[in-house]
């Protein structure tokens, strides 16, 4: 019982494919469960993967299940997204490695010899060595065009939060700025002290409590849509700040491809829920107002406590013979 | 460079033993760094482990480094703390297993056969099968006696937050209640649908974004002081809700001991920073106001974004001969 019950506490957005446990169905609920809302969602509330904005990373130590799917956010980081596309097209990361895993913070990958000009992997044609920082965008860039869905819930990190094109967003109307929030699974571009020193060659994914203090300090380039478990369950590095002591401790990257360069038959059949759909709004509300196992309903969510669902692309409906 | 730099972004409270990278020392800072504050902290701001409230868990698959140190919170869950002490004294968990690891949520351990009355491990003498729920305590229980340090920063999950005896605490003055907040590394007692159905035999630790929606819904019994990386880096279970499909996928628990039952010479030499010390207040402030690598200072923290530091017990100062 306890197994089932604790699980109910979070069977919400994190695993939309999850069937509602029988026990939950029997328990009284003030609202529909996330599973019920997702089951009732129309096909038009889901979108496919954008081949020009999706990366497929395969880890070398994977037992056939180490695929990480990352969606880029060109609306928030156009320069970095373009550079990352060029890097992926050229196979820049193929054979490189995960160099750092710091518990409750980030998993970081890139060129282990990146600091050594003599040994560093050269940038391919079409990739820029230097890019402007893209820490925020003008607020009006995340309006209707991006289908911005604002959260009524207040938080302390930013005056305004919500979701745009599947990404968690924070904004400051007074400053006229919006930016991607550092939530679990978000992907950013490592930089040195100079704000404009990131070029997308070295990337990190958040694997712990949202480090919102990084917001507006570094360029966020996208989020992991699927495969976080392959990045978050890696052994932590034991050197300073989670770097690996020895090269053999690193997890190798087999390859990183842009989805556009993957044969259509090989592409993952995955869909992402549209965050400007009523299904998403209902899911957020189901997350605020919990029933069943819950004896206290929080009546609140924050932008990093709700993960935008993905699902396997459903089969085409059968066609009548013509 | 990027390695160092991204790291600076978080070299704060998470790893107090960490020497400040040279680059950081050169960079201008509005406040002292966490490392500088910790280096200057007087011995009186640190406390040792309480043998009656500390658990040592050793994972069976550990290469000699799988020790997890958990501190119990009897002020918040006296009944569960007492039961957990009795269970540990009797070696209840020895040879049991980690049964569930759900990405961005929890790692859970206990008796894999706990649901099967015929196979379940019997409770030892002195352990209760049934306990009252301990979801919150009267607000006045976390006043001066607990050295409650209130955070001025507002958040959306609770009207008041702060720290008491090293634990992140949330409170509602109108309701006159206080409770332990579900932050990364916090340990709770799994329950079924009945609020009073937990007895501490099945425990979980938070390994992802703080699931604050669980606050006031389940009994929180303490937090992991050291060894989170051994719980958070485990392979995720692939069955529903992160349970393992096959028994052989589970990580075994070698043993769980109460520190009081461990020979003094074998006890870990670890200290915890007192959260009613000025050192902790300074660390929180250094976390709010960042310098060096940061171009934007958040000016804010929340109760789950600052981890109370531990450190190896420093050697005794040399004694003059008598």
From TrEMBL, chains A, B:
It holds the Pfam family Pro_isomerase. Its EC number is 5.2.1.8. The lineage of its organism: Bacteria, Pseudomonadati, Pseudomonadota, Betaproteobacteria, Burkholderiales. This is peptidylprolyl isomerase. Residues 1-19 form the signal peptide. It is an enzyme of class 5 (isomerase). GO terms for molecular function: peptidyl-prolyl cis-trans isomerase activity. The keyword Signal applies. PROSITE patterns: CSA_PPIASE_2 (PS50072). Residues 55-258 form the PPIase cyclophilin-type domain. Keywords: Isomerase, Rotamase, Signal. Gene3D superfamilies: Cyclophilin-like.
